[in-house]
Amino acid sequence: MLNWDTAGKPSVRPGDRESSLSVRYRQPGVVLTDRRFTVPLDHADPGGETIELYAREVVASDKADRDLPWLLYLQGGPGFGANRFIGKPAWLGRALKEFRVLLLDQRGTGASTPANRQTLPLRGGPAEQADYLTRFRADSIVRDCEAIRPQVTGGAPWTVLGQSFGGFCTVAYLSLAPEGLATALITGGLPSLDAHADDVYRAAYPRVERKVLAHYARYPQDVERARRIADHLLTHDVVLPGGYRFTVEAFQSLGILLGGGEGSHRLHFLLEDAFVRTPGGPALSDAFQEEVQGLLSFAAAPLYAVIHEAIYGQDARPTDWSAERVRAEFPRFDAAETLAGDGPLLFTGETIHPWMFDCDPALRPLRETAALLAARTDWTPLYDPARLAANEVPAAAAVYHDDMYVDTGHALTTARAIRGLRTWVTDEFEHDGVRAGGPRVLDRLLALARDEV
User: Fold this and answer.
1) Around 437, how many Cα atoms within 13 Å sit in the side-chain half-sphere?
2) Three-class SS of residue 145?
3) Crossing angle for the helix pair 263-272 and 286-296, nearest 10 degrees?
4) Is the model's pTM score more than 0.70?
5) How far is CA 138 from CA 47, 111, 397, in A?
6) Among residues 164, 192, 297, 322, which one is catalytic?
7) What angle do CA 189, 148, 93 make, to 5 degrees?
8) Which of 196, 215, 410, 431 is catalytic?
9) Which residue, 121, 257, 276, 328, is most buried by CB atoms nearer than 10 A?
10) C-beta separation of 50 from 109 below 8 A
11) 183-216 exposure pattern, b = at least 16 Cβ within 10 A, e = fewer
12) H or E element at residue 299
């Protein structure tokens, strides 16, 4: 571990090593330590192949030398590394009042052993890649956490804060290893315990439609703007600067923005200056295309697309590109039919489709791998209803009313199935409430779990 000598320079303390050298450094108000761990790829084969996990330890500067309880943060996704905070924003400032925090890059993400179009060919062909990625779901992430916990806490249980998919992982933690938890806190991430992916998306599309219509009620001028862009994409072949093939379906997928507290405003500002006049007629502006490229590309988080529907697989039924199949049950989302009439174009939400693997250069090499995962019929259960019904870990969950990403009905059914779990149902925030709400969301959950409110 690198420590700080009297001159303010990093120094190495003898014997302070894990799987590799840890580095300690400072930001305003916090002390950070980079930590790396070696864990089995397959926890059922502890002597087999290993992968590396990266995590960033964060502690308040004025508490850096104190013995504090630990809070483990599990990021949403799947497929995203933990937040790269600067200082103490959002919920982190509240956590650092009493915890030492570990921001874990879940396997395959961030600075942990990566899984993407560049690295997965090391596994072999698509079949070998798909087999490898079956070990990147919530159950493996929980076992990773249990493998590193003794090295971090000395064996003491820790508090876990799970956002979105991180909440799915937290429910899996309560199912698989509740002895590792002092407290379980969940924000926007109570999964259905038994729903198939089809059930998830049948509940999602009407919810997304409500969000889109609410956006148009706020910004009625966007109805015509969205129709104009969609019409242009139906009649022109547009390739974005990074090589992304920009289709009308890809444009509709920008509706994922509407699940965040500022998302409607961000979508509005994106649409308002989409076109410029050129000698050849109106064209999508370079600025618009550049921003869209950043929003649509999966280059930074390809696992989000590749294993997204696999997080719902729990039995012999394949997910089979569920979001794409179920979308056909909601013809109002068909752009061509919409433009043939005078209705508003509907955007889509948190859905993954096979066409994305044709449009996105970061996903094209993984199309067959993703198709094999979609066809898989040997998924195992992620949650243990009997163990959850007997839960003794203090637990609390924020459930966002009409959350676009996670169905409120499914979440509340699960809440009732976890013994002792207290819920805070609110329409004050969208899915990103733990970020947008600053310290308030975490403060509320801690109070609920401690029976202080």
Assistant:
1) 21
2) helix
3) 150
4) yes
5) 21, 18, 18
6) 164
7) 55
8) 431
9) 257
10) no
11) bbbbbbbbbbbebbbbbbbbbbbebbbebbeebb
12) none
> What distance in Å separates the CA atoms of residue 335 and residue 352, rounded to the nearest whole number?
17
- CATH 3.40.50.1820 occupies which residues in the chain? 2-193+383-449
Angle at 355 between CA 283 and CA 200, to 5 degrees: 115
Spatial separation of the C-alpha atoms in residues 236 and 63, rounded to whole Å: 59
**Residue keyed to tokens 């108000």:** 29
Displacement of CA 382 from its chain's centroid (Å): 17
Pairing of strands 30-40, 70-74: unpaired
Which residues, at least 6 apart from 217, have a Cβ–Cβ distance to it below 8 Å? none
- Rounded percentage of the chain residues whose pLDDT exceeds 90: 94
E-strand ranges in 41-166 read 50-60, 70-74, 100-105, 158-163
14-64 pLDDT tens trace: 333 344 457 899 999 999 999 999 999 999 999 999 999 999 999 999 999
Note the pLDDT tens digit of each residue in 164-177: 999 999 999 999 99
Q: What burial letters (b/e) apply to 353-374, b meaning 16+ CB within 10 Å?
A: bebbbebbebbebbbebbebbb
Residue 431: strand, helix, or coil: coil
CA gap 275, 288 in Å, rounded? 8
Angstrom distance (rounded) from CA 5 to CA 13: 10
Fold observed for domain 2-193+383-449: Rossmann fold (3.40.50)
| CA dist., res. 320 & res. 372, Å (int) | 9
Please tell me whether residue 202 adopts helix, strand or coil conformation: helix
In the block, residue with structure tokens 């397959």? 42
Residue 43 is a catalytic residue = no
Q: Give catalytic status of residue 164 as yes or no.
A: yes
Residue 285 annotated in active site: no
